[in-house]
Amino acid sequence: MVKTVLSHYKLIFLIILVVIGVALQQTGTIDPEQLIAIARQYADRWWLGVLLVLIQTVLFTFAMAGSSMVWITAALFAPLTSTAIVTAGTTLGAISAYFFSDKLSEEWTHKIKFSRIYQLLQKEGNFFTLFALRVMPGFPHSVINYSSGILKIKFINFLPAAIAGTVIKTYVYSILIYNATTPGTLTSTIDISTVWPLFALSILILFAIAVKHYLDNQ
């Protein structure tokens, strides 16, 4: 009962904050371009990048939305720097989750084992499969991390795929987000259609793996 009441208050509080934020922006009290410009003045602080890496590591370890940090990092740092920070955080989080998978409860393990990704990696746990999944836009990294840990996927395949896939995908997203949030060119939307090469690359690799698997079983 108490938890239900508290959750309702949290929702109401969140709605109030959103309404206030929209109202301040519409009245000109808050200028998004100015806020981003101010935030970027602090991007040269050495501890900020380290902090973002640590946050991502923790989020990925416990299967939370670590990928969402790319929106913050890419808005504050130039594409190359953003890519380095996100790749470091995602990779460390992947390694941590890989080994943390041994500590998962039976309920979590059951969910992972019945996922399609787990079944795919059980058959094809090579570098190319892992890379194709990593580079696919919007794909949940935590499922890859936990599935790989439970299956004891070779670390020599797991780690390079995590780094390579994250670098390529993050760099594309970093360019899009940084350009979209740069003062003078700030827009309310990001042209996600420009990430289609990532989809194409991922699907092409997975298709090639499926064909190989089919031929090997003939």
Summed up:
With 218 residues, the chain is mostly helical. Helix content is 75%, strand content 0%.
Tell me about this structure.
- The chain is mostly helical and 218 residues long.
- It has one domain.
- The chain is built from eleven helices and no strands.
- Helix 7 (116-123) packs across helix 9.
- The chain is globular and about 60 Å long.
- The N and C termini lie far apart (59 Å).
- The mean pLDDT is 81.
List keywords for this structure.
218 residues, mainly alpha, 75% helix
Instruction: Provide a count of the helices.
Output: 11
- Rounded to the nearest angstrom, the radius of gyration is 20 Å
Query: How would you name the oligomeric state of the polypeptide chains in this document?
Result: single chain
Which strand-content bin applies to the residues?
A: under 5%
Number of separate structural domains: 1
| Main structural class | mainly alpha
- Described by the principal axes of the CA atoms, the overall outline is globular
User: What is the helix fraction of residues, given as a range?
Assistant: over 70%
Low-confidence stretches: none
Number of strands: 0
Main sheet attributes: strand count, strand direction, barrel closure = none
- Name the helix and strand elements from N-terminus to C-terminus, one letter apiece: HHHHHHHHHHH
Spatial separation of the terminal alpha carbons:
59 Å
Mean pLDDT: 81
